[in-house]
Amino acid sequence: MSARGAAAEAITAARVRKVYETPSGPVEAVAEASFRIARGDFVSILGPSGCGKSTLMLMVAGLEPATAGSLRIDGVEVSGPQVDAGMMFQDPTLLPWRSVLDNVLFPIGMRRRVSAADRERAEGLLRMVDLWGFRDKRPRELSGGMRQRVALARALIGDPRILLMDEPFSALDAITRDEMGLALARIWDTTHKTSIFITHSIREAIFLSDRILVMGRRPSTIVEDIRVPFERPRQPSVEADARFNELYLHLKASIHRTTAGAA
Ligand SMILES: Nc1ncnc2c1ncn2[C@@H]1O[C@H](COP(=O)(O)OP(=O)(O)OP(=O)(O)O)[C@@H](O)[C@H]1O
Ligand SMILES: [Mg+2]
């Protein structure tokens, strides 16, 4: 392994498999997944419901052990929960009795005493997600999109090596969702975080990503790995590009094939 290769590669999955043992028997969630993600790349995962996307992300986060295969982050085998992974889910899971600022600081407080520098960083992140004026509010005083922006700031507070997002915008209305996509693209422009983003929205995936992986169902493996050709910073006008629509139709057909092929 060359030192250069190791430095450029943030996430490596080699023939990762996951079988859940359940009372009614084993469930094969991921048959075999292999991929490499370069440092700083934003990679989306598309695929039909139940194909194992969340399971794959939980394995990268070290929250579910792989049944077989190997997963590495920065060359180190994942063997337990990754402190260096910032995570976002469909539900922002904010603590209702804490202020916005304290919610952002929560992961730090779990590990050690919160310092003045941590507070400054949290305030900076709240500025970045456009919520600085709301830092003393409680989550119930915020809209759904604002809550997800708090969750994004919280995911970034520890300056994680990787950002893992599982359908973070799925519960939002279409307009807020578009705004969140744009906000996330702008944040990636400044942070260049290596990111895995799970979504059911093909357009969102194209708009945000450097690469898109399509997972197929039964056996669940990665059936496509596509590089998105558009420049950064991404502008909303990219959707008017003929290649955007071509890619959209290609991915739609690909997902449809994998769904139609399922038993
Ligand atoms: N903790 C668990 N125990 C047992 N089976 C599980 C568990 N989590 C997921 N599964 C099963 O593993 C398979 C993959 O689930 P997973 O949640 O990873 O899919 P997904 O692609 O994220 O689906 P969706 O798009 O609906 O979120 C499904 O058949 C699911 O029922
Ligand atoms: Mg899922």
What features would you describe in this structure?
This protein is α/β, with parallel strands linked by helices. The protein has helices at residues 3-8, 53-60, 100-111, 116-128, 144-156, 174-191, 202-208, 242-260; strands at 9-22, 25-38, 42-46, 68-73, 76-77, 85-88, 162-166, 194-198, 211-215, 222-227. It has two domains: 3-84 and 164-260, P-loop containing nucleotide triphosphate hydrolases (Rossmann fold, 3-Layer(aba) Sandwich), CATH 3.40.50; 92-159. Helices cover 37% and strands 25% of the residues. A hairpin with a 6-residue loop joins strand 9 (211-215) and strand 10 (222-227). Residues 1-6 have low confidence and may be disordered. Residues 20, 22, 27, 29, 47, 49-55 line the site of adenosine-5'-triphosphate.
Report a brief summary of the structure.
The protein is α/β, with parallel strands linked by helices and 263 residues long. The chain has 2 domains: 3-84 and 164-260, P-loop containing nucleotide triphosphate hydrolases (Rossmann fold, 3-Layer(aba) Sandwich); 92-159.
Instruction: Determine the oligomeric state from the structure.
Output: single chain
Can you tell me the CATH architecture of the largest domain? Answer: 3-Layer(aba) Sandwich
Bound molecule types? adenosine-5'-triphosphate, magnesium ion
Secondary structure: helix percent: 25-40%
Decide which structural class fits the backbone. alpha/beta
Q: For the report, how would you describe the main beta sheet?
A: 6 strands, mixed
What is the helix tally? 8
- How many domains comprise the coordinates? 2
Instruction: Please provide the ordered H/E string of secondary-structure elements.
Output: HEEEHEEEHHHEHEHEEH
DSSP E strands, number = 10
CATH topology of the largest domain: Rossmann fold
| Cross-sheet strand order for the largest sheet | 6-7-8-3-9-10
* Alpha-carbon Rg, integer: 19 Å
Termini distance?
41 Å
Mean pLDDT: 94
CATH superfamily caption of the largest domain: P-loop containing nucleotide triphosphate hydrolases
